[in-house]
# Entry
Amino acid sequence: MSHAVHSLGDCHNIMDFRTLARRRLPYPVFHYIDGGGDDERTLARNTAAFDDIDLVPNVLAGVGTIDTSTTLMGRETSLPLILSPTALQRIFHWQGERAVARVAERHNLWFGISSLSSVSIEEIGANYAGPKMLQYYYHKDRGLNAALVERARAAKFDAIALTVDTIVSGNRERCKRSGFTTPPRLSPSSFLSYATRPAWALNFLFRERFSLPNLETHVAEGSRRAISIQDYFNGMLDPDMDWTAVEKLRDDWGGTFCLKGVMSVADARRAADIGCDAIMVSNHGGRQLDGSRAPFDQLEEIVDAVGDRIEVICDGGVRRGTHVLKALATGAAAASGGRLYLYALAAAGEAGVERAIAILRQEIERGMRLMGVRSVAELNRDMLRRR
# Structure
């Protein structure tokens, strides 16, 4: 059902923020957020997967007082929801990662910044006290790899999440058609889209220069040179990365360590065997291998295999509080997602992200009450049925 969404006050769920973001962003930028790999089957399935499992509520459970908090990767957090690391946030709104970090800190949520973040590791570490992870890309440039670890350590990040599903770029055909690069490049076809979004264009042109500060000390890609994300992944990242490299990185870091992009039981077992603290069951938001399985579809068998040894996070496709509850009832330690706050960031900056997280918090709390549970730990598979 479509309805008019003209302002932040019209946004009552995550998809409303998508509608508003589409109005406010130039189309190459919107489609960079919104798109996935190839035919986008996996992108669609990530959310649709939640519809194949139904919740079975219990009633009369005395749920006047409920507790949504949990401990994740050693930090207490007020919701079992992680704001997944996503790149380039100042392209979507000039406040960028700062807006997301402020909202995460206010709500005491885990959030991540990307190796490709548009605000530095140092600034995030110095200004935001909430639990935070650096999403880490493994580069061919070993000096850059080492520098990222040291910078995360110096900035007192709580965890590193190594992304393992992007050794080459997915085939993002929407970006090929729109010519999306970072920083955005004006082309004859995209000029009209930028020109008809003057608020975005003025912010982009006249606020602080867009950059990728975690990279610019080592590579030209951190500077003004416009490259596509596909070129970055295909040129900079090391496709030879293997389990030996992962163990070395985990040892070099020495702190809480998460693998992001694990989808098979065999890989989940190996992650547990080498002492990872957590895995994010993730297909990179449907942006990499199209035709791959959705995280929620894969969650049960991974939890059954390693859930007693490692925290399993279900990443991707989350649009509703009930999706979070279904993941937790299956056995996940938390759910996480990127678009769920990126649409809101693009729509209205910090105020948008704040409203989106407030809506998800209300959905989780309401869902828990309607499910008859007082704490997230009470959610279990007895409360689920497959169609």
